[in-house]
Predict the 3D structure of the following.
Amino acid sequence: MQPTVAFFDDSLNPAVRGFLHSPATANGDALILTHGAGSDCTAPLLVAISETFAGHGYLVLRCDLPFRQEGERRTRPPFPGNAERDRAGLRNAVAVLRQEVAGRIFLGGHSYGGRQSTILCAAEPDSVKSELVSGLLVLSYPLHPPRKPQQLRVQHLTSLRTPSLFVHGTRDPFGSVEEMTTALRLVPAKTELMKVEGAGHDLGFKVKARAIELPASIMPRFEAVFS
């Protein structure tokens, strides 16, 4: 297990708070991971993926989004109006890690956190799109609310020019693999969809064996996409 320390930078608004995983042998690259609407950065899925990436040389920051840091939303889902501030928190996290590594920075997260990461990158002006992050790792993208397939969250995907790896369970009620495949055709950048057989929105992480296998299986797919 790689060294992990609590991390915070309150000089920024929104602040950046979470945990930093430092690799024993650094490869010069970094990953920022954040959580879903009903969780925080201590989620076991994020911890396991962070440890795996740190074991492969990445400096990893798993951080709480601003809505999870502030006020009554510490234990509740975000208000819809908080999304822009949450994206500002992700931008600040990128700025913090930019001071720590000379190589590439990757951004992503689970469900709500992954979606906000894609929206942030899609909203970048064309002149700076390649300067924010080098790629996205999106876990269980919430394509639509459960049982409401007509409410697709795809409006920004035509502007997403950041290479991305999407990891998605074949039993995810927030979008089927077939629906995700169709949605990702809207993205003008390189994308890959990694299917997790039999997994729901939690990527099956409550199953002990998958808790070990999933992060290890993500790593080679990630490196193949961003090689």
The chain has seven helices and eight strands. The mean pLDDT is 92. Residues 65 and 79 are 12 Å apart (CA to CA). Residues 4-225 form a domain with the Rossmann fold fold (CATH 3.40.50.1820).
